[in-house]
Amino acid sequence: MLGFLQSNVSDESLMLKYQQGDSAAFEKLYYRHKNSLYSYLYRSHVDLNVIEEIAQETWMAVINSARNYRDSAKFRTYLYAIAHRKLVDFWRRNKLDQLVDRVDEQGEQLIEKIAEPKKHTEDSIDLAMDLLLALESLSKDQQQAFLLREEGFSRKEIAIMTGSNEETIKSRIRYATGNLKHILEVQYAE
Amino acid sequence: MPNNRNHSDAELAALLKRAEPPKSPDHLDDLIIGYAREKAAKSDKNSVFQIFTVGSRWLNRNWISAAATFSVAVVAVSISLQLFDPAEVTFNASNKIADSVNVALEANEVASPVPAEPISQQPALAEVAVVRNQNIALAVAPSIEPEPQVREREEQRQIELVPAQTVETTAITTIEPPQPLNRIETDTNAIAQSDTTQNIQPANPAQSTALNQQAVPERQQRTVAIASTNDQLAVRTGAVSAGGTSVFNSVDSIPVDDDNPTTDDQVEELIVTGSFIRRDNFNQASPLTQTPAQTPTQTSFEDLLVNDEIIRSSFIELMYRVLISFNQNESVDSLETDNDATNTQSILDAFSEITDLSELLVAGDRYAQARQNFTPRVLPETLGTAIEILRAIEF
Question: Is the pTM of this model over 0.80?
Answer without folding.
Answer: no
